[in-house]
Amino acid sequence: MSAPIRVVVVDDQLMLRESFSVVLDFQPDIEVVGTAANGAEAVRQVRDARPDVVLMDVRMPVLDGLAATRQILANAPATKVLVLTTFDDDEYVHEAIRAGASGFLLKDSSAHQLADAVRTAVSGGAVLAPSVTKRILADLSRRSAAPGAPSERLAALTNQELRVLGLVARGMSNAEIAVQLGVAEQTVKTHVSRILMKLHLRDRTQAAVLAYETGLVVPGR
Fold first, then answer.
1. Which of 66, 102, 120, 169 has a CA-to-CA distance to 192 between 20 and 30 Å?
2. Could you tell me the residue ranges of all domains in the chain?
3. What is the CATH number that goes with domain 144-213?
C-alpha cells in the first residue's frame, strides 16, 4: 500500500481549517500533517512536515498566501500549492498561479471535490474550479499580448505540441487528448512533458493559463 498524501491546511479561520482537516483526514489515502493560521506559519509547517500538497488561503495576517506560496515553492519546489478562493477573488487567483500554485478551488467545495483536488494535484493534473475558471480564463485572454506575440512565446513548440497544449488548456486528460489526436496515451504524456520543459512550466495548470494568456486558446471558440 502506497504512503498517504501528506497535506498542510492553511486558513486564518479556525472553523475552515478544522473542517477541511476533518474532511481530508477521513480519506484513506490522505493525511493532514499540519495546519497554519497565516503564511508565516505555513512556511514553517512546510519546512518541518514536508507535505505533498498545501491548501492555501490568500487573505491572511502576518504573511499573505501569495508571499507564502512563493517562499514555499522556492524552498520545496516539489510541493503542490492549491489556492483556496471565494467567488470574487479572481485577481488573487491570477497572482497565485503566477507565483507557482498548481490550481485553485472554492472554499465551499464539497468534501468529494476537495479530496479529488488534492489527488489531482499530486498526479500533476490541473485543478481549476469550474465556476471561476470561465471568468478567469476570459480575463486572461483579454489581457493577452497583441497578434504575433503568441508565436514568439510558443515558438519552441512543434505543431503537434501546440495542439496538445490547446487541448490541455481546454481541460482534457491525457486519455481524452489521445483519442482526439488518434495517438497513444504515452505519446501524449511525452508531449506534455516536453511542453512543460520547453516553456519552463511547473504543471498543467500553468500550461493552461499560458495558452489563454498568449491567445492560443480563446474561451468560447
1. 66
2. 5-136, 144-213
3. 1.10.10.10
CA nearest 153: which of 90, 109, 215? 215
Task: Write the CA distances from 46 to 40, 69, 73, integer angstroms.
Answer: 10, 10, 10
Q: How far apart are CA 163 and CA 177, in angstroms?
A: 9
Q: What share of the chain is helix, strand, coil (3-state, %, to 5)?
A: 55, 15, 35
**Residues in Cβ contact with 65 at an 8 Å cutoff, skipping those fewer than 6 apart:** 10, 39, 42, 56, 57, 58, 59, 83, 92, 96
CATH superfamily of 5-136: Response regulator (3.40.50.2300)
pLDDT tens-digit map of 105-124: 888 888 888 999 899 888 87
Query: What tens digit of pLDDT does each residue of 167-200 get?
Result: 888 878 888 899 999 999 999 999 999 999 999 8
pTM for this entry: 0.74
Contact in structure between 56 and 40 (CB atoms under 8 Å): no
The cell numbers describing 113, all together, are 471535490
What number of H helices and E strands is found in the chain?
11, 6
